[in-house]
Give the backbone structure.
Amino acid sequence: MNDTQVLLPSADPARHLPLAALREALEALPAPPRDLGVVALVVERHPGEARRAPEVGVFAPGRGLVGDRWAQSERANPEAEVTLMRADVAKLVCNGQDLSLPGDNLLVALDLSAENLPTGSRLQVGEVVLEITAKPHTGCLKFERRFGADARALTGLDELKAARLRGIHARVVSGGAVRCGDAVRVLGRA
């Protein structure tokens, strides 16, 4: 997907993996970096299921990712301004499908666990500073439709909840640009 292309990715049920395969693949993943990671993908969500992966995403306080549907919602929750998901977990559940399909604004190579990034922790992502919020980011029916009931079950397993496999929410503290390949640095843990 390029900077100008708006894509309406469709889920392929033939790509859904069973829980046992998901768990095995998850256990085989190397541990994500804890302090310094990288941005793998920036994703704008548009009405419906449309997505755009810009080369540069601009983030602003109170607006999230400029151009993303979050700011256009009458019910925009300030605790959910930006969503992040581990890129390796997204790749696992997507199983060959477009990586914009999960619908998270930032796919990153970084440990998003509650232990590593408790509520209030701050990240420098490119030029942007984000603060992790308390709002849980859990799998929903859309996630289940895209990746299967077993993928949703994986992200909700009691022993894996603290890993936050489905991702996290954040708010924009200071805005700026983010590009694929930019560093994601933990500035401070709450």
Observations:
- Residues 69 and 171 are 15 Å apart (CA to CA).
